[in-house]
Amino acid sequence: MSSESEEIPHLIANWWLQERLGSGYSGSIFKAIHVHTGKVVALKVQRVDHECPTNRYERGFYPSLQGGVGMPTLWASGVEGMWDYLAIDLLGSSLDSLYRRSGKETMDLRSVCCIAMQVISRLEFMHSRGILHRDIQLGNATIGLPPDEKTIYMIDFGFSKRYIDAYTHRHIPDSKAKRDFIGNYWFSSVGVHCRGKVPSRRDDLEAVALMLIHLLTPRGLSWTRNGVPKTDAAHEILKREKRLARPEDLCRGLPNEFEELLRYCRQLKFQECPDYQQWIDEFRELSESHGFPSSYDFVWPPPKPVSTKPKSTVTAADDLANVLNDLGRMNLGDNQTLADRTNVAQAVRQAKQDVGQDSDKRTITISSDSEGQENDTVPPAFMAPKAYKLAKLTNRTSSATDNAALSELVLEFIKVMKSNTSRTLIKDGFAFLDALNKQLEDPSVFVVPMRTRSKDISLQTETSNAKLGVVARLRREVGNAKSNRQLATMVQDFGRVTNRSSGRTITKDGFSFLEGLARQLKTLQ
């Protein structure tokens, strides 16, 4: 126990201190009971003359945060002698404690998706109240106590800051003036930590992205593995490693959503408001695509995934043999109803006549008209259903004669891509975009494939870095296209940037672009 905790009295105001829950640089936190009401709280205690009076700062933010989901309630606060105290909700374990106690190198994907959805939602609420957290980390996110054990709470607002000026009610200005770093070494954004920039909403969200990637990376992010730097030289090495880490390297092997979130945060403008709901939806869809529930309740220990694979209707060989043997042993002779064969001979003769009459007329016709029906034929054994549907759409696109038909084909393409758990654009999908581009640009020219097998890593990296910005621009501009040729250029840009991005997945912005493309095709017909 620290010397400070030994000096702290057992009674502060009306709160009787019990066991110490934790301590840090700026103070200690105890479980405490109100001597009159019996209310149990977490009591944060700090010396009033501390050089970093975080309790005083926190006290100013709690009134703005009260009532928010996942925001602790402030029950009391004040100064008693030389001690500044805050009485807040007693909560459960932090995410850091859960992660460490699990003994695993990474956290499971379902839990990480739940953390993503809930923490982004908490940031949305805090930011709506004009407050930045500025210290996003696993230790500052905790689960509640029953019955709120599935809710993640944000705590520790000692480093928080208002980004909306109290007098002008406008966003604080950006500045290039040198500033001291406030935050944590592991997850504070590269801009704030490594480049000394003024923090804004984008930096809180980037910290969440880095925290999520850390949870899915064996042994965590590389710059977290040597502990807190103890010298300026060690800190500079950490900052350099963090600054030079590329999103595609940090997220290699992870679902594409994590890299896209990190890139999205880094392309936001200083005063720009993030699209929180977009990313909540992205992680909900990611969870569902892996067989987990759509609910963002944080369940610990994590439940097993629910299999989405339909049960086979094929009878096992042994079972089928038993059924046939049982049928062979059936004695129908004594059952007059089942054994009545009076009409059997007549039925056989009639069937033979029908076959003879129809044999000359029966032919099998394969026409392009049947290709519009999704269930007209079964995909070949060597071809997946998704690839088969996309190949059929490509054939129909090549023969389309007007914008209305192309618009309907684009909508069908979206439907096929969304109906599959994987949003990856396979070669048959690129073939569809190739055919669509050809029809829009000039129906008389040959298709020039967008999909390439080039191994030029530098080219892939450059395009990957630009993917989110390009797709977002296409989504915004598609409604202003004045001709089919302009739409063709957009389709070509979309295909190329998707091809050269990691994962080759269609994002939410990508689907929005395609939906806008379908609408604009009808407008220009």
TrEMBL record:
Keywords: ATP-binding, Kinase, Nucleotide-binding, Transferase. One of its GO terms (molecular function) is protein kinase activity. ATP binds at K44. Residues 15-293 form the Protein kinase domain. Pfam families: Pkinase. This is Dual specificity kinase 1.
